Amino acid sequence: MRCLQSGEPLGRAVEMVPSSESVATSDCSASGHSCLGGQIGNKKPDTGNIEEAESSLRESGVLNYEEARALLGRYEYQKGNLVAALHVFEGIDIVSVTPKIKDALSKSRERRKRYSQNNDEQQMSVHAVALLLEAVFLKAKSLQVLGRFKEAAQSCKVILDIVESSLPEGLPDNFGAECKLQETLSKAVELLPELWKLADCQREAILSYRRALLHEWNLDAETIAKIQKEFALFLLYSGGEAMPPDLRSQMDGSFVPRNNIEEAILLLMILLRKVTLNRIEWDPSILDHLSFALSVSGDLMILANQLEELLPGTIHRKERFYALALCYYGAGKNVEALDLLRKLLSNREDPRHVPSLLMASKICCENFSVTKDPGVSFARMALENLDGRCNQLENLANFLLGVSLSAYSKLAISDAERVKRQSEALHTLETACKLSRMEDPVVLYHLSLEYAEQRKLDAALHYAKCIVKLEVGSNVKGWLLLSRVLSAQKRFLDAESIINAALDQTGKWDQGDLLRTKAKLQIAQGQLKSAIETYTQLLAVLQVHSKSFGSRNKLFKDKRDQIRNLEVEVWHDLAYVYISLSQWRDAEACLSKSRAIKLYSSTRCHAIGKMYEAKGLYKEALKAFRDALDIDPDHVPSLISTAMVLRHCSDQSNPAVRSFLMDALRHDRFCASAWYNLGLLHKAYGTESAFVEGAECFQAVHSLEESEPVEPFR
Length: 714
Fold this sequence. Notes:
Elements: H1 2-6, H2 11-14, H3 23-30, H4 36-42, H5 47-60, H6 65-79, H7 82-89, H8 94-106, H9 126-145, H10 149-166, H11 181-198, H12 202-214, H13 221-237, H14 260-276, H15 284-297, H16 300-309, H17 317-330, H18 334-344, H19 354-366, H20 368-371, H21 376-386, H22 391-409, H23 415-435, H24 441-453, H25 457-470, H26 476-488, H27 492-505, H28 512-524, H29 528-549, H30 557-580, H31 584-597, H32 602-615, H33 618-631, H34 636-649, H35 655-667, H36 672-685, H37 688-706
Helix pairs in contact: 5-9, 6-7, 6-9, 7-9, 8-9, 8-10, 9-10, 9-11, 10-11, 11-12, 12-13, 13-14, 14-15, 16-17, 17-18, 18-19, 19-21, 19-22, 21-22, 22-23, 23-24, 24-25, 24-26, 25-26, 26-27, 26-28, 27-28, 28-29, 28-30, 29-30, 30-31, 30-32, 31-32, 32-33, 32-34, 33-34, 34-35, 34-36, 35-36, 36-37
């Protein structure tokens, strides 16, 4: 290297290498180059490399074989001759020099100022260590470029193994700064997981990430944050499930992730905390990935807490409100979500924010009984602000407006007003259907549902068939709606055939509602024994379901609650079947099973009342119906049954009877049983006007029974 500076011939310098053959000559001939001097003439040597080499020579007084290869290989790598560089690097016997490197690193904290001149066994300098480790790193980079990823990862791992075994307690501050040793080590720590990923070795990649984060490598904050983020993304999107980390060194009570999602969430939350403490720059993608991870795991309230803890100005105030509303909505806190959206849509914030308007309308549609606001104004305002700028959002706004108007029609006082709102709901839903080119199954579903509820069954049947065809039978809701429309047309055999076809194409986990509908179709055809067998089959499926989801907490909470509610309703259905067969013990057993799952249920109280009524115990029946109304004052079957028992036990013209029946019709205008009992009440009055009103009631009953499904459409 002194010759390189002075321009003297290389002959005397190469003599310093303890080998019978010149390294430069052998490597030049192997790589197809005539001589090293010609290569040097093409490119100016790296001054930094020469300074490091001179420092090494000053310390040791000799340039050994491995160091010479390291210098020559780096020179070839810098020129872009990767094959030649790799050939040179592969000649370095890193195994033989590893003990010297480890010894030099372990004693680097207490290096002596004077170096031994013993030529038999010399102490390797830190500069020489840096040179050799850099050679290993450049070898890994060359292998990476040449597509030999696994070999590259194994080569890169050697660097970490040497340093970690030499300094198990971690690296001291400013370690190797004077000779770029720390820089090489940082690059190796960052590169190794990427190489394992390229080699499709997921387990090794995860172990490398954990090693990079758990060992003290003296990395800067930005590098650590980058590794944490890349590791979190790999855990979230790699598609494989990693073994949980072994964190036995952690203190008792510390959180230990149990799976990929939890480990990724932990990393992303650490990154957010670093942003809050101003240790790293704000990266919006961190919040995006954390939102995805917490949404998948069902921990949306944790995400809401993270959003609330962000410093003001980190994200826009409007964006924060909207994200918080999404979190509350996903966690089932719809009223809180709607309050946030109303705050965002106030005049102080942004009353024209279309996503918030659409979401507010959606929440109102889905929770009409709670919000008491159908969301019509939000949907109309969204349409006005869009003004045809986005077809997709305009389609969504029309859809939400149609659903809102459908809910709004139920608040109408007069029939004329109700019909007007229903007509407008159909019109907007049809507009949304046209805008989506009949390719949106959700829009088709609600359009078919609206036609069905207005008893326009032919149109409802047409769109229900379109749903099943469009979704290729993949959605249970489409099958159920089609079978219910057919049952409303009294085509029970066709409806049961549809359910059987759906059962053939559906996994057992999704067969609950299908089996229940099948049982009700069998009851409608008088096949009570078959219905009992179907209910028994359904209960067996639900039992397996409950055991499967019983041990999981947050992710499957909604599914578990849905299964639990369905099981309760199935026991009630079976109880009604046994009551109709006068099998009191079986009915009581079913009701006892229901009580064990859910303590308070208006339907169970109603079933108990019907059993007492069938036995002729009218006082006990009336008490049971009142218990049902205490739990749910709007329970229509209990309102009707209370009126029937009161009419049987008291004066036929008891005004309370009429009050209960009118209350039932206020909640469900399509209840044939309520109209029938109201007709009987008018008939009992005996006046001419009462006979006319009674006839109208019976005519309504006839019309409703002709189009009544075995289950409610919605």
